[in-house]
Amino acid sequence: MAVEPNAKKRKSDDNKHSTEILSFAGFDFCKVLKNDLRSKTAFIHSQFEGKDAVILMEKTAFDANIVQEMLTEKTELVETLKNDVYSTYKTFPDKTLNGMKTTLIYPATKQHIAKYSEQEFHIVQESGEDYKKVTLPYVKNKALSNQWVYNILNKETEADRIVFEDTCPDSGFILLPDMKWDRKDMDALYLQALVHRRDILSLRDLDQSHLPLLKNILEKGLSAIKEKYGIPANKVRSYLHYQPSYYHLHVHFAHIKLDNPGFEADRAHLLTDVIENIEMKSLYYKEKTLVFKVREDDHLYKAFLEHGCIQK
Amino acid sequence: MAVEPNAKKRKSDDNKHSTEILSFAGFDFCKVLKNDLRSKTAFIHSQFEGKDAVILMEKTAFDANIVQEMLTEKTELVETLKNDVYSTYKTFPDKTLNGMKTTLIYPATKQHIAKYSEQEFHIVQESGEDYKKVTLPYVKNKALSNQWVYNILNKETEADRIVFEDTCPDSGFILLPDMKWDRKDMDALYLQALVHRRDILSLRDLDQSHLPLLKNILEKGLSAIKEKYGIPANKVRSYLHYQPSYYHLHVHFAHIKLDNPGFEADRAHLLTDVIENIEMKSLYYKEKTLVFKVREDDHLYKAFLEHGCIQK
Fold this sequence. Notes:
By secondary structure, chain A is an alpha+beta fold. Chain A has helices spanning 64-70, 110-115, 128-142, 147-153, 211-229, 271-280, 284-287, 299-306; strands spanning 21-23, 27-36, 41-48, 51-59, 76-83, 86-92, 100-105, 121-126, 164-166, 173-177, 190-195, 236-241, 250-255, 268-270, 290-295. In chain A, a hairpin with a 2-residue loop joins strand 5 (76-83) and strand 6 (86-92). Chains A, B: Its EC number is 3.6.1.59. Chains A, B: It holds the Pfam family DcpS_C.
């Protein structure tokens, strides 16, 4: 069993597995790795029982139902400015109404810590040749393990979260909510489709032989979202990342209102565009120069430098 | 003196004007006008003493100093997911550490309420045929005047802001800072290149005859930015919008660190991609389905509906 950080019960219940209430007791603060002012997320290097942890603390968007509960005398206001009809206040709602979200990575590797540290970025233009020479060896050697994906595909974890499954080994996939979505706020709807095939690393591998798979994901993914959540296709963006954060083919489905940092034009490739480009030319994604943003401390960036494919 | 909403003192101080501590007592909730998930701001229509109020409640970014104080046993965690080394928690810090910001508009006019109300968006898939049938007539009839662009090209306005000019009537352009850039913060660098030719409405018009123009903008635009501001090409994103906000061909140049809402994958088209796609196929952008996001109250959206090219 994985180590459970600080499973301290708050109420003196017996040992039943009801909702366990934990805390940050026992975590030693090391450093704020990054403080993202836009997403209002702090990335913290910490230690627990001598091992590294990465803590992502994120302010959450408002729940429209809770907003109403905040408009009472329990929410304290401290005036900071007043001008004509406009005034501003520091605002302290009741603790229980003002939750945040924490993602804990424990134990964390050096790569996890580097991934969440503040960094310089560069634009890389990756030709088809660059991919074979630089990126593919990097993916095979350095990329993080896909074990967590296989756990899901094997129904060893998160089986209860599956929204839809097509079990076909060639064109099938599992659709489930992204970790970043609370599954309540429909405007923030965000799911991922993980394909059952394990031989497709990314967009780069796709050609006309994969069209049935891609069209199946588009069609059944959108219709499952319509059926389960009532959100129609013209409100859902479906796209692939390049570079992806893990090299097992997957497709993102996000609500058009979700202002997602992963939807930048040098990372997100619309699934409908991918299908149309491959229909036009089977080898489109094997030959196309693909542009992406990369962190200066990323091994992939270093590999591009070492091979002389880019200049510093 | 303006009405002071609910000036209830929490401590029984005298009537001194020290920091007054107020609350939301006496505010009647009417409606959530908009819930912005990205900025984590709720816009609320409320009433106080029978008059309208607009309340903007915004989650604030983390203060790096306060983060450390949150890593104690006082911060409660409720586990919501666990998979391998990753786990997520609802997180409830001490109330005093977890302030938000409120902006109050009181009394508020109908215009204030409309300004902060939600708009619906839709994804439109525009085929080459749709463009000719719906979009082109719309652009010719309804789009805003380009007179302000011609004023710049004629040096009648903003001549002192020009960063670079290539005067060639076929492949020339004027490069100048975007109005949104303060010209001080280099991480927010943002310029636009306006072409001298007046016969190219947008990306849709481009074919191989425009390759010299496009390559000229890419090369000379990036080198002018390097020379004037010291920002190298691998830190600058160059792209076109579709739909653009005005129908006179122009190219955006923005710093890679600028978190620009105009760089979404269903609006921004990288200039290098545009060049490569046209080199591959001259009519690429005349035939390609182009995907864009449109507001429900936009005349273009209504035109698509009227022509039966999309369903509501």
